[in-house]
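Give me structure tokens for this 96-residue protein.
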Amino acid sequence: MDLDFVWLGIGLFGQALFSMRFLVQWLTSEREGRSIIPLAFWYFSVAGGITLLAYAIHRAYPVFIIGQLTGLFIYARNLQLILRERRDSASAEFSS
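Here you go.
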């Protein structure tokens, strides 16, 4: 199998992961009847972003690399804030 073909598959897989976040967000919002950003949105963002970053590095696309690095920082920070809030909430309930 040609290495370029493998990398094309990796790029397409990363784009599929990245696109899943919108499907997850939309379905969750429809179910709740209001706009919701579920935790899975951020996990798909990170997974898709990492995969697309690997593809962009392999293809040596500097604009794409910068865009993915910036996005990954934001996605990771949102996950950190969400998980910290959940941990603090659980600690407060436990100590009450």
